[in-house]
From TrEMBL:
It comes from Streptomyces gibsoniae. This is Acetylxylan esterase. It comes from the Bacteria. The lineage of its organism: Bacteria, Bacillati, Actinomycetota, Actinomycetes, Kitasatosporales. It holds the Pfam family AXE1. InterPro entries: AB_hydrolase_fold, AXE1_dom, CE7. Residues 1-317 form the Acetyl xylan esterase domain.
Length: 321
């Protein structure tokens, strides 16, 4: 696969044409206020995993609408004091999977909270959280569920779950609420950026090859899924481009990035046709905090840096705690 997007020197100065809604902040303030009317009700049940180096808790907390959302909290074995905490969000189609698949951060001495993804987790990495909210006709997948209105759009629920996941992680006595970071790749990276814009006191975020950024460019540049779900919807529902793009503007990582208050470590892959590099740079260039860096993987597709990027995170993140 050859490079298909802008040259790297242009990517470093690229700015999205996505138009921020005038009521963006009011929309999200109202959404989170309504959600916080429900008790967080974070519950942590110890799990017997036969893993000797970590202790795992099966977590349930109240997300958007008070709906129960699952997660795993993993901490180093024999921990008895609050630890810096990494909250992780997973990629499109995946769920929280099994506890032994999430050992990296606890092995490095952190508390690690991984959020299940409502309605997903049946493509890979099994999930345990249903999405009880229906929608109007939609393309199979999640990108067009409720896409005609910001109030009903699927990612309103998921991004709110992400904020509540941070609150749930902070509710456990073995986590240090003052030292909390958010990480994730692809869809997880998109959620990370949104949470970074909505939670003002994170110490760091680390989105890898993030999804859900610069919708106007992404939906017309790549024909890969999941962005293509939006194109397929508009191909069928002719004349609905303007209201759909208006809805998506409330969920564009570019606008959350403009509110970012924490140091940030991004990554992009120049042959990535799933999350094109210009869409990643759109969010990175908009990220408001001055302490930000982006790792670029010249000849990689959507796998990005993979374990190499994790190694970068393991060097970068402790200094932010």
């Amino acid at each position: 696969m050859a490079l298909f997007d802008l040259p790297l020197d242009q990517l470093r100065g690229y700015r999205s044409a996505s138009v921020e809604p005038s009521d963006f902040d009011a929309f999200w303030t109202k959404t989170l206020q309504e959600t916080r009317e429900h008790d967080l009700d974070a519950r942590f049940e110890p799990v017997e995993t036969r893993l000797r180096t970590v202790q795992v808790y099966d977590v349930t907390f109240a997300g958007f609408g008070g709906h129960p959302v699952k997660g795993w909290l993993t901490v180093p074995a024999a921990t008895d004091e609050p630890l810096p905490t990494v909250v992780e969000f997973v990629g499109y189609g995946g769920g929280r999977a099994l506890p032994h698949m999430h050992l990296l951060w606890a092995s490095a001495g952190f508390a690690h909270f991984v959020m299940d993804t409502r309605g997903q987790g049946s493509t890979w990495g099994g999930g345990d959280t249903p999405d009880p909210v229906g929608s109007a006709p939609a393309v199979p997948g999640f990108m067009t569920r409720g896409v005609e209105d910001p109030e009903t759009y699927y990612y309103r629920r998921l991004f709110t779950d992400g904020v509540r996941a941070v609150e749930a992680a902070r509710a456990h006595p073995l986590t240090d609420a003052s030292r909390t970071a958010a990480v994730g790749a692809s869809q997880g990276g998109g959620i990370t950026i949104a949470v970074g814009g909505l939670v003002p006191d994170l110490v760091a975020i680390a989105p890898d090859v993030p999804f859900l950024c610069d919708f106007p460019r992404a939906t017309t540049l790549t024909d890969r899924q999941p962005y293509r779900e939006i194109g397929t919807y508009l191909k069928t529902h002719r004349g609905r481009t303007e209201p759909v793009l208006r809805t998506l503007s409330y969920f564009d990582g570019v606008h959350f990035a403009a509110r970012g208050r924490a140091p940030a470590l991004f990554s992009a892959a120049l042959e990535d046709q799933t999350c094109p590099p210009s869409t990643v740079f759109a969010a990175f260039n908009a990220w408001a905090h001055e302490d930000k860096t982006i790792e670029v993987y010249d000849f990689n597709d959507h796998e990005g840096g993979g374990p190499h990027q994790q190694a970068v995170q393991l060097r970068w993140l402790p200094a932010r705690f």
